Amino acid sequence: MKSIRMLCGGLVMAALSLSAQAHEYKAGELFIHHPWARATPPGAQSGGVFLLVKNSGDKADELIGVETAAAGTAELHQMKLENGVMKMNAVTSVEIPAKGEAELKPGGYHVMLFKLVAPLKEGDKFPLTLKFKRGGSVKVDIKVEAMGAKAEAMHVH
To answer: How many CA atoms lie within 13 A of 83 on its CB side?
Structure first.
């Protein structure tokens, strides 16, 4: 009997550990995988947030806004190469195609945080609300990774 309780306890702990590592959210037909940010140096006033959104639905959706108390302003942005120069511009939305995905990652689409309330420290978490045109709003926890973290290590397709 004691070994059965220990086994059940171990299974519960393993399940909780997996769900904590998964760091995933759902909004309608949208699946949000591991929203994260890079740690910032002391005194930094801006930071970036990255994530993967998969759409299992038959209709496209759009990420149309973001909000967080961790920064004075949160905006959708895109980095792209124009005439040999990397440029960053604010965008009004990020399309998530039907039966497709959109990845917000360094060097591409991402969330910019301006006027950070505090530096982003590795290991910390903060809330962010994602607003989708069709899927509505969903609150996610952003996990702060190391300063040099790369998107490839964050997302397993």
So the answer is: 0
Integer Cα distance of 119 and 42 in angstroms: 6
Rounded CA separation 143/65 (Å): 19
Sign of CA dihedral 89, 129, 93, 124: positive
Closest CA to 90 of 111, 115, 66, 61: 111
Determine the Cα–Cα distance for residues 138 and 48; give it in Å rounded to an integer. Answer: 18
Q: How many C-beta atoms surround the C-beta of residue 8 within 10 A?
A: 10
Q: Residue 37: name the closest of 120, 109, 102, 107 by CA.
A: 120
Q: What is the pLDDT of residues 110-137, one digit of tens each?
A: 999 999 999 999 999 999 999 999 999 9
